[in-house]
Design brief:
Blueprint (H helix, E strand, L loop, with lengths): L14 H31 L1 E17 L4 E15 L2 E5 L14 H8 L7 E7 L2 E6 L7 H23 L1
Antiparallel strand pairs: 1-2, 1-4, 2-3, 4-5
Helix pairs in contact: 1-3
């Protein structure tokens, strides 16, 4: 059963399509795994620096016609100095995959402990001083990417096997 977008919800129609779907799923899993390892290392190796919050906001994304519903993203900016060099950071967590929330209150809770203009502690990995973050803990966003990539790969594989 297809729709006007050309996407077939029964899975790929050809073996080439199936391989493509599986490769996309594996790529999502790989990126999520890579990001999880990177953020774990960043948390382990981080050092504290003084920072000043320069921006706090919540951005709403109303979604698309194929994926309706709002997502809310906390936006933060902070300035800090590391080894005499000034930087601006924008990450709450060390993951590159941004954490989005289904409710505005969820996004607000991620930044509720910060105030614009206030001093706080940020964390810097000495190997990447320009990539600081505010919470010295891992985010679950990479794990979600791994799970979604796994499900995508699993469904593409099962769909392909059924068609063979």
């Amino acid at each position: 059963m297809g729709d006007s977008s050309g996407v077939n919800i029964n899975g790929p129609d050809t073996l080439k399509g199936a391989v493509l779907y599986i490769l996309v799923g594996i790529a999502i899993i790989s990126y999520g795994g890579y990001d999880y390892v990177q953020q774990t290392e960043a948390v382990r190796e981080s050092v504290e620096v003084d920072a000043t919050i320069t921006e706090l906001d919540i951005e709403a994304d109303s979604g698309t016609s194929s994926s309706p519903g709002a997502n809310f993203e906390p936006v933060v900016a902070f300035e800090y100095t590391y080894n005499g060099t000034e930087y601006t950071g924008t990450k709450i967590y060390p993951a590159d995959i941004e954490q989005n929330y289904e409710t505005q209150s969820g996004a607000e809770s991620a930044i509720e402990e910060y105030e614009q203009g206030a001093q706080t502690i940020a964390y810097v990995s000495p190997d990447e001083p320009g990539d600081a973050f505010l919470k010295n803990e891992t985010s679950n966003a990479p794990v979600i990417a791994i799970v979604l990539g796994g499900l995508f790969t699993l469904f593409a594989t099962v769909s392909t096997i059924r068609k063979l």
